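User: Show me a protein chain along with its predicted structure.
Assistant: Here is one chain, sequence first, then structure tokens.
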Amino acid sequence: MQINLHQTHHTIADFSEIFSYLEQQDNDGVFSNSINLFPELFLCGYPLQDLLLTREFIVNYCDLLDKIKLWWSSKPRSNSVLLLGGLSYEIREEIPYAIQNVVYELSENENLKEIYTKCLLPSYDIFDEAKYFTPGNKAIVWKYQDLKFGILICEDMWFSPHYKIDPVKELFEVSKDQKLNGIFNFSASPFYLGKEKSRINRASQISQQFSNCPFYYVNRVGSEDEIIFDGGSFHCNHEKVLSKALSFKEDMVTCTISEAKEINGNYLEDVAAHSFETLFRTQLDYTLEPPQLKKLEDSDYECILHALNLSIMDYADKIGAKKFLVALSGGIDSALVLTLIKLFLRDDQEVEAVYMPSQYSKGLSYDICKELCDNLEVKLTTQSIKFLHSAIRNSFSENFVELSGLADENIQSRIRGSLIYARSNQNGSIVINTSNKSELAVGYSTLYGDSVGAISPLGDLYKSEVFELSKYINKKFENLIPQEVISRPPSAELKENQEDSQSLPAYEILDAILEGYLSYKYDAQGLIKLGFLENDVNKVLKLNNFSEYKRKQFCPIVKLKAKSFGFGRRIPITKKAPRR
């Protein structure tokens, strides 16, 4: 026999798609003489949030289970096992009284028998599992014929002291002094930079703990709103990865079954490198004073490109969008977003760029937009806002005082937001947001103006990282992005001779302060002790805290880091400002 890791990619609650996958694999003979592992909650998708409480979902899900049972029993089965992640409902008076995250067995012996329940239910960052699920409390060794395997579901392998139970330790105790052929982990593990390495390291730790017993890890792939699942399923033994699936693509890996290992020795208490504690890890280079963001490698930027490709295209596919719309400004952010969309674009999709100059826009901005669109072979439309801006100012002053200062700057951005959405409505395209993490952190985006969009590709990249990603793309794709947009000082061009440096610290300083603060590691005094100027720290933190209401109204942000804005960061809007 062999083990197949099915790294699947399907839409949440698309039960016909899920069943079709099983049927097709069965017809192709994949299930013969094999143990087949499917990701956590394969039978419904993840994360479900309140969807799993809705009547329609529950009825359709239960229908799928009945359909699978009938299909599985429709022909003889021998040496064919499916272990499927799914939900188990306890229904009382038509109300879901208890819901569990389980693994089901399909074999010649069992037809959708629950064999294991997830014990650790994460409720940090993007996770909300304790809100919905009832935890398990029992480790098991699953037996099939003369084979024995330990079972874990996703977070169960990431023990942290704030949990009351360590499933790996519990599994060790029930496995001790007997032989295991391996350990299975069924995951729906979200992506962020460095996560794959951490998974493999943790699996290697567990393998060593279990007398170098093989570890089989199956993960799902796909993108759900702002969360990316990167796949990367693997089979390792001790520190050696014996086989590995592709990242960011649906795949299947076939693995051998090793001889059983006798589990002996003592369990070594260990705090995993990735769990709740991850929230407090700050990506700063402390060799510099003051510290700066850790520099990303080319391999990191390549990984970011794959992640953004999957996220944006999956988002568009799942909402049925074929056209993309980007508002160009002549700045680095919009230039990078348009370049990304063009690089990812398929033959059945279109992208359009619109440049909307005001009286403050410089000629260089148009030149950059034109050169970029020529390089990318993208249609560029110029729609001036000068006269609209003038008309609004005149009309406004008839009833109120004259528009000036920030109000005048913001109205220009909101005119652009209205125009780009008028074009979106006109041709059925989705607007791609162009804001970066630095802007979102300090509120330098206008509500209903440049904050508009269906999804934000750059919202988890600091401004300095936006520049570096642009340079990487130019190195890889022969200078698609005009050099002038990389070298010119950043500016919103909403007033005469405006530059970002007039109102913000330099981005290498700003981004480092934000990283220290947003990771929950430092307060104002802690940042000042690191060498940052007190005025800079106080200004940045004040802007960040005041801007919470803006972020609450922002579009989904593609999650690329361990700690991101969006669903995983929930800070009250109405709170007392920190003391300084």
